[in-house]
Amino acid sequence: MTTITLVQGDITRQRADAIVNAANSSLLGGGGVDGAIHRRGGPAVLDECRALRASRYGKGLPTGQAVATTAGELDARWVIHTVGPVYSESEDRSELLASCYRESLRVAGELGARTVAFPAVSTGVYRWPIQDAARIAVEAVRSTRTAVEEVRFVLFDDRAYDAFARQVG
């Protein structure tokens, strides 16, 4: 049984086996969580991302998929990079968002990670409404069979924390 916990704060300050990065498809860093993880993780994270681009993901990591690298200087063993969908009012992309969580847990399981820290994927520059994103994230984690013992949602502000707290119950 996976325990879901909520923390308000900075995901780059978390101690966990794996920290999930809300990455862009390039895997080369960016803004928000992605940029913060790359900055705090240091050059080892970017080096492994570049190697992934050169070997398996020449066109970038597809939306809804996940891949792991070292965590570099972060207080974790791995960073699991996942690419969330950009929110659209005209197209339901909920399944892609749920896939980010399921695929990240699959990768975590393959690595042997027992604790995984997630941000609220797609809720920053990808504009996914926080209430809906929280519902999708919690449902995806609860419905995924995994050996991960703790899923920790690390939420940046009160609004996100409250939205996830309503879903977790």
UniProtKB/TrEMBL annotation:
Any Pfam family the entry gives: Macro
UniProt xrefs under InterPro entries: Macro_dom (IPR002589), Macro_dom-like (IPR043472)
CDD domains xrefs: Macro_OAADPr_deacetylase
Domain Macro: 1-169
The name this protein goes by in its record: O-acetyl-ADP-ribose deacetylase (Regulator of RNase III)
Annotated source species: Streptomyces echinatus
